[in-house]
Amino acid sequence: MRIQILPLPSVVVGDDVQEPFALVIDQAEDDIHKELLGEFARQCGAKTFVIVPQTVEVVDRYAEPAKHAADVAAESLQALTEGWPRLDPS
């Protein structure tokens, strides 16, 4: 089980800026105590929380967008074959 913070859009009211967040609890087992984790989230000030058995990677909102899988595969193949002789397509 992991606990991550997912920043939500900022809320501006006059001079007051609030930075709401959600807790993301991933890699959770079936027998996890959801009510206890929900209470923990509320006490931490989270607006909401999500519990999932899968792995979820929360990224920084200012991070560069991830490359498309095909682009990554093409770059990997190009790096792998660097220096190999090229075949004449004719």
The structure class reads alpha+beta
Could you say which overall geometry the principal axes of the C-alpha atoms support?
elongated
- Would you list the SSEs in sequence order as H and E? EEEEHEH
For the biggest β-sheet, the strand order reads: 1-4-5
Task: Give the mean pLDDT.
Answer: 84
Which bin fits the share of residues in helices? 25-40%
What's the end-to-end separation, in Å? 56 Å
How many extended strands? 5
Helix-strand layout with pairing:
Layout: E1 2-7, E2 11-13, E3 16-18, E4 21-26, H1 34-44, E5 48-51, H2 69-80
Parallel strand pairs: 4-5
Antiparallel strand pairs: 1-4, 2-3
Distinctive features:
90 residues; alpha+beta; 5 strands; 26% helix
Task: Write a short abstract of this structure.
The protein is an alpha+beta fold and 90 residues long.
Question: Could you characterize what this model shows?
Answer:
The chain is 26% helix and 24% strand. The protein contains two helices and five strands; from the N terminus they run ββββαβα. The chain has 90 residues and is α+β, with helices and mostly antiparallel strands. The radius of gyration is 22 Å and the shape is elongated. It starts with a strand and ends in a 10-residue tail after the last helix.
